[in-house]
Amino acid sequence: MSRRCTIKDVAARAGVSTTTVSHAISGRRPVSAATLATVQRAIAETGFRPAAIARSLRTRRTETVALIVPDIANPFYPAVARGLHDAISDHGYRTLIGSTDGERQAELGFLEDVVSRSVDGIVLFSFALDGRDLTRVVGDRTPVVAAADIAGTGCDRVLVDDADGAAAATRHLLDRGVTEIGFVSGPKGHGPGDHRLAGYLGALAAAGVVPAESNIVRADYTVDGGRSVVGELLARRSHPRALICANDLIAIGALQAARAAGVAVPDALSVVGFDNIDAAALVQPALTTVVIPAYEMGQQCGQMLLARMTSEADGPARQTVVPTRLIVRAST
Amino acid sequence: MSRRCTIKDVAARAGVSTTTVSHAISGRRPVSAATLATVQRAIAETGFRPAAIARSLRTRRTETVALIVPDIANPFYPAVARGLHDAISDHGYRTLIGSTDGERQAELGFLEDVVSRSVDGIVLFSFALDGRDLTRVVGDRTPVVAAADIAGTGCDRVLVDDADGAAAATRHLLDRGVTEIGFVSGPKGHGPGDHRLAGYLGALAAAGVVPAESNIVRADYTVDGGRSVVGELLARRSHPRALICANDLIAIGALQAARAAGVAVPDALSVVGFDNIDAAALVQPALTTVVIPAYEMGQQCGQMLLARMTSEADGPARQTVVPTRLIVRAST
DNA sequence: CTGAAAGCGCTAACAA
DNA sequence: TTGTTAGCGCTTTCAG
What we know:
2 copies of one chain form a homodimer. By secondary structure, chain A is an alpha/beta fold. Helices cover 44% and strands 16% of the residues of chain A. At the A-B interface, helix 4, helix 5, strand 2 and helix 6 of A face helix 4, helix 5, strand 2 and helix 6 of B. The first copy, chain A, binds a DNA duplex through residues 6-8, 16-20, 22-23, 26, 28-32, 35, 50-60.
């Protein structure tokens, strides 16, 4: 056959109307057993596959969700993507994915594009957009789940309890009898470092421990950043007995710096990271870390979106806080 | 406004026909400067965004490419996805992504779905499908680029020169003066391990070196697999002076086994992996590895697909072999 | 239980 | 340079 066959061909072959074929497929209207069988045979014989686009034009539903992230190649987001995928694919939804490098223009462009493509929902990881951008570009017809603290928006949100994770890490060290605990945050105002810093400070305060200002420093979220900053820290006359680092890459840099300085981990220095990237379990010594559950976040985003997409439940914006958990390995 | 406005609204506002609006947007037909300006103003005032679905129904093009992989959370595929993204997004194409866990049924289901969604092209990483499946489900209207050795199909392919990479690794060790080189492949008939094994054997033969059968073993593609198999190897009376492992995870397991056995790397044992996962640069000692350029593979897939999608160049199936390269680090 | 007809929003002949 | 008309393939009133 030269062209893909349509519902019309099936109808002709089955000797019924296209309406009946449509309903035989969707089940949205009773069809007699006899015609149903005839139609099904005709479908099988013609190899008919409904054109999703035509259906979408009519129904205004595309069974498609957009996932907008800074960089799908950054190991955090693939886990999110998989979680989202697993939450929605059983309901027939597919994922349209876009990497924006965190650039505002790219984020806006991708948003506009997927809105014009009539996606049924959007999962947005953005640090550059605010609520006004969202209402302007997306409107209020397409549900959005934002997975970052997007200011001034009424859309659903999935957040991580960074402070709680940091507090757990801090208490873990205190329980080990270590009180001189330093913190390596990320660049000021960038990423989750300062929420984590706040949790660390809170846990120390709750334990009546006063941290040394000089033991609270900042590094880029990279191995190199961690290595150089912690290298300087360890070169001082005295250094803390433990370091909580704002992510695993910094923590791995800290391990390297300790090795270079001849400081034994965990005997002379304990190190904790955040994220639980694959490498965390593989470095030597294996890294104790606060798990940021990327997969679960993706799932949660999917579930919240499903709730909006399936029901007409037009309720107020919901907010979910995903819990973290501490994995203790050899570095503490 | 209550509903998203359509081309009709713009036309009414600009006092022209919808045809003219359409052409003012697409530029597929000359429009006088005056009306163009009027239309553009009307578009701006109404905030009109063309409905991509309606356009697609008419033009039979969706500007969408499907990427089908076993698991987007497996670190190899995000890099592929990003490469594909970067190759096609400037041409207006978006990526619809699906994880199949390598299961035949999931692969077929996803293929059917994206075909019914009229994607313009498909990038397929599959080890379970063959050419017949492809022609049956996809037909010959939608171009496919397969990134694995799918038997009996006429579609474009992107392959990796595994054997060449293994040969380069082998020569590197030989150049270091090491001749007792073992090989840890993956499970028989699973993944690229045996192509790599073949390259290793070829390079040894070319150098006139005869490998000891007992130094060629198999492990699962995991850290645990590598650790246990290499642990046994090192427990023997004599062991090889170098090991080439079919992937980085196995190689990292080998490093752990060596450490456990008190075998110094690289002094008493050199270790080479494949892939260059992030952890390869972070383990101690850092791992020498054969880079499998996932990003470039994705790009290449995108370019081959673009060639099929844009031109009607209906030529014979093309095949590209992506080169590998050796990164020498401390483990050799 | 079934069918006829309208129409989703756009583009592409064809006609002027 | 512009407009009229038909129709992409499906779903959904409305009518029987």
